[in-house]
Structure formats: structure tokens, C-alpha cells
Specification:
The structure holds two protein chains of two kinds.
Chain A: H1 2-43, H2 60-66, H3 69-100, H4 107-119, H5 122-132, H6 139-146, H7 158-186, H8 190-198, H9 203-230, H10 235-240, H11 252-262, H12 265-296
Chain B: H1 2-33, H2 53-60, H3 66-97, H4 105-113, H5 119-131, H6 138-161, H7 167-174, H8 179-190, H9 192-208, H10 211-216, H11 225-231, H12 241-261, H13 263-275
Classes of the chains: A mainly alpha, B mainly alpha.
């Protein structure tokens, strides 16, 4: 009898549990899972707006995309953008975090200032950089003119446009990196440094043998979160160059977007799914690294 | 001792550089927003004259639609924040406190979802929104934004709820309170800081979203701030930089003030969301 009552109560509890996660699951199923599956389904069809027939073509769209140079070029742009951007963010973010971790006059103000780029919406920061890169009345060419250097067409040549995008992105995303690394730094016990100081270790030695190894787990998480995010880059490129000049800075997300704009949903969807595959491969590396760390513990 | 001095000097230089790097684009935005002629750096003949004209224009010129963008963004972001925080509080409570099969899979499943690139949804989502007749409506952005902000929100709240002792609930339930009552009268008030930082992060994410907003709105009256500012154009196709920067300042200042005032909450939310999820 008593047993029966507990199992009844347990059943009611479980039912309540499911009810409480139901809203979350519903929204996520309808507006994330269904769209991803739907996009995959579309990618298996020849699907062009204004042509009513949408015949099933299997993997043909993927074959077409994978044999096109523009796809590989965009993948190259996206991966190199992610690599350069995340590397610079890490170096800058680590420097910022090290500074903010010191007892320094005005540290509170500095911590506030470092958040500002994070708080500026990506589109708005991109537009501000676009103005600063302007050939005839931008801030950078004005500084060059004071230094007596001839102006640069920042967004007009493939290489300079690539780095212009990287710099604007690094500015926007460094705060996130800084905050994560600062949290990591603050978790390092202070007495380790004091002991090293007594042993006469120099500043650089202390950094190399205490800070870096103990910061590594947080650093890896931060690196991978940022890489996954950078591989999906869209907004900043859309505003700064629109993928130009001549398609030189078109990321994969932007390439897919361009096909949607042309009304070719089949090809656009295939590229979108391949973007997901690219991010997924990095995520798997992420999970592997995570497990590797658990093994160490 | 010499090392200590060297360190101080390096730190001071570093701190000054850091402040300059973080601030100059933001300051430049403000400088140009007050410029009578935004091309003042282009020619020695044009002088910098400050004016409020750009602000007056973006707020009153009906062809720029800026007040409508601002209104849409604020309404959508507020509704999304309210919904996301409610839905994820319920879910975080269930996962952290109620025994049911598969509950531990929920956070991992949701975390996995945040790996999807936005572009991998839009092929189908666009057709879906069109079929529902939602293009240019609030719900076209509202629902995708709620779904999109749920993972982060769930993770922050879950890591907070799990730290609260379970005795709290048990004591309340012995007194006859239901689960829902325990959640609303005990857990939520105790979690105010976590709820607040979640709400801030969700609001900012929804306010800033660009790709969905670009695709699901075609009418000026339905656009949000990021889309409006990205597509701002003068009558003759030139970019009205003064207006663009004034609109940028108006939209950014509240966010920056929020970030500065509630720095602590934002930092704890960002680091909890990221590092607890490792």
C-alpha cells in the first residue's frame, strides 16, 4: 500500500517534470530541429523559386557544390578568417586579462571599458569600422596622410579587405575572450606565485610555469567556443564588404545566403548543411579535447 | 626590484593602450554623429562643426523609419527576454530538482543545438515563415529568437539552480507548497542575480540579431535596428554617415550603459554560460 503510494507520487513528479520542460522542447523542436531537418530535405531537391517542380535529386546539389571552386575558396576564406581572428583575439585577450588581473589604479574603470566593444551591436560596430576604413574621409587614411603615407583602399583589395574584417572582428570579440581568461586567471591560487617568488623565479618564468599551464583548460574552452562562432561569420562581412571585392571575402554562410537571394534554395541549403558539417567537425575536436582533459584528472 | 619597476611601466603602458583600443571606434561613432559634414577628414576645406542635426533627422525624418526600427527592436527583445527566461526557469527547475527519465540529457541536447550555424536553419525556416504568412510580423522573429536564446539561458540558470540546497524545496513541500509554488516563491527570488544576468544577455542577443531579421522582414515598418542601420541609404544611394552614426549612438548608448551598470551580472552570466558548459 505504502509502496503503491510512493510510486504514484513518483509518477506524478515525473509527469510534472516532463510538463515543465515541454515549452522548451516544443520551441526548440519547431524552430531549430525542424528547420535544420527541413533545410537538409530541401538540399536533396532541385529547388528554385518560380519553378513549381521540385524534383528529388539525391546528393546532386552536394556534388555540384563540392566541385565548384567558389565553395572551396569560401571555405578557405572562412577557415583562415577563423584562424587569424581567433589567434589575434587570444593574444590580445590574454594581454588584457593579465593587465586586469593586476592590482592597478583605475582597474574598475578599465574592466568597464573592456566591456564596451562587446556591448556595441555587431552591425553597428561594423558600420563604424566601415566609415573608419573609408578611402577619402576615413580615420585610418587621415592618420596615414599625417604620417606622409599614401592612402590605402582598405576594403577595395582582397588582402586588405580580409585584414580589415579580421581587425573589426577582433575588436568586437576580444572582450569575451578577456572575460573568460580573466575568470581563469582569478581561479589560480595566489600562494603558487608567492612560493615561486621566494624561489626567485622571474616574471617570465612564473608566467611560463604557473600561469600558462593552469590557464590551459579555460584557454582551450575559450579557443574552441570562439572558433565555432568564427566559422559561422556572416554579419560583419555582409556589412563591411558584402563579400567583395569580387567575392574575395565571401564566407560560407554568406555564399549560402547569396544563393538563397538568387532563389536557388537547393544549392543554398546544401552549402548551409556543409557549413554545419564544418562547425560539427570542430565541435567533435572540442569534445575530444574535453574528454582528453577528463582523462588527465 | 628592477623587475618590479619594469612590470609597473609595462602595465601602465598596456592599460593605456587597452583603453584606447577599446574606446576609439566608439568615440569615433559619437564624434561623427555630431558632425555637420561627416566628410570633414576628407578635405582641408571642410571643417568639423558640431551640430544636433543628425539626431533630429534620424528621429524625425519619416523616410529613415528609425523610430519604427527602435520600437520593433525593443518590443521584440523584451518579449523574447520574458519568454526565454520563463521557459528556461521551468526547464532548469525540472532538470535540477525533479526525478524523471532522460532529464540529464536535456542540457546536453540543448547545448548541442547551439552548435548549429544560423544559416543551416534559414533554408527551411524562410519557407516556413512565409507559409505561415508571418513575413514582416513580430512572431517571425519572436519564435526563432526564443529558440535561439534558450540554450545559453538554460545553462546559466541550471548552473545557478543546482547550487541552491535541495532542503529549501523539501521544507516548503512539507509545508504543503506545490512544485510550481516552490519555484515561484523560493527558487526564483533566491536566483534574482542569475535571472537578471540571463535577462540582460538574452535581451542584448535578441536586440543584436541580424540574419533572421534581414531575411524575415521586407518592409521598413517591420525592420529592426541592426537591419535598418545595415541598409540605411540616402535618396541617391550614398550613405548618410551622419544619420547612420547618430542612429548607432542612440541604439548603442542604452546597451553600453546597461553593460557598465550591470557589469558584474553580465560577466558572471557570460563566464557561467561558457565555462560551466565545458
Amino acid at each position: 500500500m505504502d509502496n503503491n503510494l510512493t510510486s504514484k507520487l513518483k509518477y506524478r513528479e515525473a509527469k510534472l517534470g516532463y510538463l515543465m520542460i515541454l515549452p522548451l522542447l516544443t520551441v526548440v523542436l519547431v524552430f531549430i530541429i525542424l528547420p535544420v531537418l527541413g533545410t537538409f530535405w530541401i538540399s536533396l531537391h532541385r529547388d528554385v523559386t518560380f519553378i513549381p517542380e521540385k524534383p528529388f535529386v539525391g546528393l546532386k546539389n552536394y556534388l555540384r557544390v563540392l566541385s565548384a571552386r567558389e565553395f572551396w575558396y569560401s571555405t578557405f576564406v572562412t577557415v583562415s578568417f577563423s584562424f587569424v581572428s581567433v589567434s589575434l583575439e587570444t593574444i590580445l585577450g590574454l594581454s588584457f586579462a593579465l593587465i586586469l588581473n593586476e592590482r592597478l589604479k583605475g582597474r574598475g574603470v578599465l574592466r568597464a571599458i573592456v566591456l564596451i566593444p562587446w556591448a556595441v551591436p555587431t552591425i553597428i560596430s561594423a558600420r563604424t569600422w566601415e566609415l573608419m576604413y573609408n578611402y577619402s574621409y576615413g580615420l585610418f587614411n587621415w592618420i596615414l596622410s599625417i604620417l606622409g603615407v599614401s592612402p590605402v583602399n582598405w576594403l577595395g583589395t582582397p588582402i586588405s579587405a580580409f585584414f580589415a574584417i579580421v581587425i573589426a572582428d577582433v575588436w568586437k570579440t576580444t572582450p569575451f575572450m578577456t572575460l573568460l581568461l580573466l575568470a581563469g586567471l582569478q581561479a589560480i591560487p595566489q600562494d603558487l606565485y608567492e612560493a615561486a617568488l621566494i624561489d626567485g623565479a622571474s616574471m617570465f618564468e612564473r608566467f611560463k610555469s604557473i600561469t600558462l599551464p593552469l590557464l590551459k583548460p579555460v584557454l582551450i574552452v575559450a579557443l574552441i567556443l570562439r572558433t565555432i562562432d568564427a566559422l559561422r561569420v556572416f554579419d560583419i562581412i555582409y556589412v563591411l564588404t558584402g563579400g567583395g571585392p569580387g567575392g574575395a571575402t565571401t564566407s560560407i554562410s554568406l555564399l549560402a545566403f547569396n544563393y538563397y537571394n538568387l532563389g536557388d534554395y537547393g544549392i543554398g541549403s546544401a552549402i548551409s548543411i556543409l557549413t554545419f558539417v564544418l562547425v560539427l567537425s570542430f565541435t567533435i575536436v572540442y569534445l575530444k579535447v574535453g574528454r582528453f582533459r577528463e582523462g588527465l584528472k | 626590484m628592477r623587475e618590479e619597476v619594469l612590470k609597473r611601466i609595462l602595465l601602465t603602458i598596456g592599460a593605456i593602450l587597452m583603453a584606447i583600443i577599446c574606446l576609439f571606434p566608439f568615440i569615433w561613432m559619437i564624434v561623427v554623429s555630431f558632425a555637420k559634414d561627416p566628410t570633414f577628414l576628407g578635405s582641408p576645406l571642410v571643417e568639423y562643426k558640431s551640430t544636433l542635426e543628425n539626431y533630429v533627422r534620424v528621429l524625425s525624418d519619416p523616410t529613415l523609419h528609425f523610430p519604427a526600427y527602435l520600437k520593433n527592436s525593443i518590443i521584440i527583445a523584451s518579449l523574447v527576454t520574458l519568454t526565454t527566461v520563463s521557459i528556461s526557469s521551468l526547464a532548469a527547475y525540472a532538470v535540477s530538482r525533479i526525478e524523471f527519465k532522460g532529464r540529464l540529457l536535456i542540457p546536453i541536447f540543448v547545448l548541442g543545438l547551439s552548435m548549429f550555424p544560423q544559416i543551416s536553419l534559414v533554408g527551411y525556416l524562410f519557407k516556413f515563415i512565409e507559409k505561415l504568412g508571418w513575413v514582416n510580423t513580430y512572431q517571425a522573429l519572436y519564435f526563432p529568437y526564443v529558440a535561439w536564446t534558450l540554450p545559453l539561458s538554460l545553462w546559466i540558470l541550471l548552473s545557478y539552480f543546482s547550487q541552491l540546497p535541495k532542503d529549501l524545496d523539501e521544507a516548503a513541500m512539507i509545508d504543503g507548497a506545490s512544485r510550481i509554488k516552490t519555484l515561484t516563491t523560493i527558487i526564483l527570488p533566491l536566483s534574482a542575480p542569475a535571472l537578471f544576468s540571463t535577462a540582460l544577455l538574452v535581451f542584448i542577443a535578441a536586440f543584436n540579431e541580424f540574419m533572421f531579421a534581414l531575411l524575415f522582414t521586407t518592409d521598413h515598418r517591420a525592420r529592426t535596428v541592426p537591419v535598418g542601420i545595415a541598409l540605411f541609404q540616402g535618396v541617391h544611394g550614398e550613405i548618410p554617415w551622419g544619420s547612420v552614426m547618430a542612429a548607432s549612438v542612440i541604439s548603442t548608448i542604452p546597451l553600453v550603459i546597461m553593460a557598465l551598470l550591470f557589469q558584474k551580472y553580465i560577466v558572471s552570466g557570460l563566464t557561467a554560460g561558457a565555462l560551466k558548459g565545458e
